[in-house]
Amino acid sequence: MEPPRRQLPFYVIGHKNPDTDAICSAIGNAALLRITGEPNAIAARCGEVPARTAWVLEKAGIETPPLVADVRTSAGMICRKDVVQVSSTDTFLVAYRRMLASGVRCVPVVDGDGSVQGILRYLDLLELLVPGDGSGLQARTVNVSIGKIATTLQAESVGAEMPPCDVEEELILLVGASSQNTVDRRLKQAGKEGNVGRFFVICGDRPVVQHYAIENGARALLVTGGNGVEQSLRDLARKRGVIILMCSQDTASCSTLIRCSRTVRHVMDKDFATVSSGEPVSRMRKSLAQLEQDLFPVQGLHGEMIGVLSKSDLIDPPRTRLALVDHNEFAQAVTGVEECEIVEVIDHHRLAGDLVSREPIRFLNEPVGSTSTLVARKFRHRYLEPDKGTALCLCAGIIADTLCLTSPTTAELDHEMLGWLSGLAGIDPATFKSEFFAVGSLLATGTPEAILNADRKEFDDEGVKVTIAQVEELGLQAFEPRREELEKALKTLAAENQYELAVLVVTDIAEHHSVVLAAGNPRFVANLPYAHIDGSLYDAPGVVSRKKQIFPAVCQALRKAG
């Protein structure tokens, strides 16, 4: 039976180390997608929320988007949660009926606390019906619970007290179909050999055979065909400690059903592999391909089974759907983007050339100051208005990325969309800008790592690996006291990630003035086209835009050095 394919999440997500525009444009685009036919679209992020962005979300009354660090399809995403399973104490009959009803040929064997004890295949059940090599005494010996026999046969107990249902015994089956003398002789011989107490005698309406079984001290007597047992024999059985069961089935059926009462623990495969819920499908394909096992339990964080996978589930699994905002490069995207279905890209940066898709996608890339501007225009084109909180978020994205329309990246469309959105959000852009940039100084409070990663992007320019981090402040006075530790951290970042050039830009958004700290290959550092202050520090008056001013300058330094 083919399980239904699960629908994976649809995330609208920005770049690593997201800034306000990345998070706010994701919120806006997800809201638009939900209105226009994608009800499962969720705004997400793949990095920490900057303090200023957190302030925006609080002011807008919008929950922080969930952190999604890896979007690869994992075992936990595609496993079947409605699992057909059995317990190690379940009988053949219980397991067989459950597997037959559900149409599966392999099930996990799970104990009371949810942990997997083994794997049971359909063919394994045959071993319960024909134990050993199928000949001699071994063929008649069955390790089984008398209580489970009684349950399977729906038998009535009228002799000695029954043992607990979970107690299994090694019983020797004896069908009392031979002559009375033969049955008596075999039981007496068993008495001499010391194993008559293991004999389980099966007979119908044969009081003499019943008497021989009880008199010789058999472990149990099963009376078939709905036949009864005289009261005197019942009393004798209690005295001798012989269990008597009475059932309605015929003797031949009972012989088979007794073997069907054996538990699956005897034949389940205890040497099996499991997979963790977070294991990516791409990695599982390789690790599980060589194994003969067909069904794999999927375990949660605490070792509990949350579902199962078969090899066929890994052939063409569903993929996480993504709408990328504020970036179009895999190097800047969430981990696992290569294995996802990219539905849409909305961005205002350069094209990097490494983004690929299986099918045609919606791709919107324009030279404007903010991705939030493009998302806002999509609302306008559909004659829709974002709600007040979403409008405020989109305003924040535009104000942050264009420094409230003063950045050289600002386009006419940014002016138009901010004017429209600010009316919907009920804010004054100039006042909002002042409040927004007044929220906490990262230079004053953040660790070097937090400062470098708050808004950092990675680039590959003709094979040269570069990273540019930017911090926006009201004034540059907090930089000099942190200069030494920031330079040390920048050098470490460059070495650990093999960046040819690592740059930290500290921008005074009030005065439109930046200082640039650089580390990496000395040839590239020395060729940065800014006024050299000392060592690896440069002065860059009028420079505020990473996209339009800083990145082109870095590329110029790389080419000049080359």
From TrEMBL:
Enzyme class: hydrolase
Keyword Hydrolase found: yes
A GO molecular-function descriptor: inorganic diphosphate phosphatase activity
Keywords: CBS domain, Hydrolase, Manganese, Metal-binding
EC numbers: 3.6.1.1
Membrane-spanning parts: none
Signal peptide: none
UniProt domain CBS: residue ranges: 77-135
Pfam families: CBS, DHH, DHHA2, DRTGG
Catalytic activity: diphosphate + H2O = 2 phosphate + H(+)
InterPro entries: CBS_dom (IPR000644), CBS_dom_sf (IPR046342), DDH_dom (IPR001667), DHH_sf (IPR038763), DHHA2 (IPR004097), DHHA2_dom_sf (IPR038222), DRTGG (IPR010766), Ser_kin/Pase_Hpr-like_N_sf (IPR028979)
Cofactor: Mn(2+)
Stored NCBIfam families: PRK14869.1-5, PRK14869.2-4
The protein's assembly and partners: Homohexamer.
Protein name in the entry: inorganic diphosphatase
Native organism: Luteolibacter soli
